[in-house]
Specification:
Blueprint (H helix, E strand, L loop, with lengths): L3 H10 L4 E6 L1 E9 L5 E2 L6 E2 L2 E10 H11 L3 E9 L2 H9 L10 E4 L6 E8 L5 E3 L3 E3 L7 H17 L2 E6 L11 H13 L4 E6 L10 E5 H7 L6 H12 L3 E4 L5 E4 L5 E4 L13 H14 L4 H15 L11 H11 L2
Parallel strand pairs: 1-6, 1-11, 2-8, 6-7, 11-12, 12-13, 13-14
Antiparallel strand pairs: 2-5, 3-4, 8-9, 8-10, 14-15, 15-16
Length: 337
């Protein structure tokens, strides 16, 4: 389904691509605790956890940024809204090592910077264990002023990049960056520029998008078409609704794609040895699909590249993995030659 010459061609074009992204950008903050240093609090008598290292990295939309950067995309233009707070400062600092234009990262005093704080503690065997996560984010709608500003920037990002990734990860309606008003703005732009790639990955609201190239996992695709008896039928209905390709990730079974002509094709993944960690696998598949489509791949070729990238990242245990171009080529030779 994917010839090596085609894969090499797609990878060769990566540095020339500029990809826009819109959605909720999180700060993932890891607190490494040394259990040997624990001591009781004088005030409460409770044991205090002693943090010896703090690691910050961009999450949610930032996971896709990390993947695209590792693959070698030349320029990344995220559009999001974060708080005017310390977490926001740390999040912007975490983007400095990536090829990111952060001029469209909007800071609002009305918002909290979305942050997942993840305490990690080593057990007696030296393995890291994640303790209860601490979540920070706003749970109110964007203000009208912020939403208007977001839509103005959205028009600029969409027209100045080769394609746009829409990442809609907030389950509670109208509390994240992709609310009903922003969705209407996206719809109008998709109608005005039908040939430009608008790739949409929505965890909870895939059924609300009647435009764009849609992507979801099996559960998300079936939830978007409740009356569909199976995934291929649901994909055909979504394809008929949007007139654009649809991608559905299927775990170790690979991926299915509904092509523009309505055909649903299953693209299997190659065998993977050893234990796996599927955290972030969908985002890594998205990265492979998007850069391939922007480089001129067919839907089937793009699904095959998405499978290759995801098969690499799931083997990176205990972290949200990424893949380099050389790793992608090596995996092709391992599984496709």
């Amino acid at each position: 389904m994917l010839q090596i010459e085609r894969l090499q061609f797609f990878l060769h074009l990566l540095p020339k691509l500029t990809v826009g992204l819109v959605g909720d950008l999180f700060l993932d903050r890891y607190l490494e605790i040394d259990a040997q240093l624990g001591e009781p609090s004088i005030e409460t008598g409770l044991e205090t956890q002693q943090v010896v290292r703090v690691r910050n990295q961009p999450g949610a939309l930032g996971t896709v940024l990390n993947n695209l950067a590792a693959l070698g995309v030349g320029n990344l233009v995220p559009l999001t809204v974060i708080g005017d707070d310390g977490h926001g400062y740390d999040l912007l600092q975490s983007l400095q090592s990536l090829p990111v234009d952060d001029s469209h990262v909007l800071r609002s005093p009305d918002r909290l910077t979305p942050t997942y704080t993840k305490p990690l503690r080593q057990d007696a065997a030296g393995s890291w264990q994640e303790l209860n996560r601490l979540d920070v984010r706003s749970r109110q709608p964007l203000t009208d002023r912020t939403c208007d500003q977001l839509c103005r920037h959205l028009q600029s990002v969409f027209t100045q990049t080769d394609g746009l990734i829409v990442l809609d990860q907030i389950d509670q309606r109208n509390t994240g960056v992709i609310d009903d008003r922003v969705r209407d703005c996206l719809r109008k732009m998709a109608q005005q520029h039908p040939q430009r790639l608008m790739y949409i990955d929505s965890r909870r609201w895939l059924s609300e998008f009647d435009f764009g190239t849609l992507k979801g996992n099996r559960a998300e695709v079936l939830a978007a078409v409740p009356d569909a008896p199976d995934v291929p039928t649901a994909m055909r209905q979504l394809n008929a609704r949007t007139g654009q390709p649809v991608f559905c990730t299927l775990g170790d079974r690979g991926m299915s794609t509904a092509c523009r002509d309505g055909r649903v094709v299953h693209v299997p993944s190659g065998p993977i040895d050893g234990p796996v960690d599927i955290v972030g696998a969908g985002d890594s598949a998205t990265s492979g699909i998007v850069f391939s489509l922007l480089a001129g791949a067919t839907e089937i070729e793009a699904a095959a590249v998405g499978n290759l990238v995801a098969s690499i990242t799931v083997q990176q245990l205990g972290t949200t993995g990424t893949a380099t171009p050389q790793q992608v080529l090596d995996r092709w030779y391992e599984t496709c030659s």
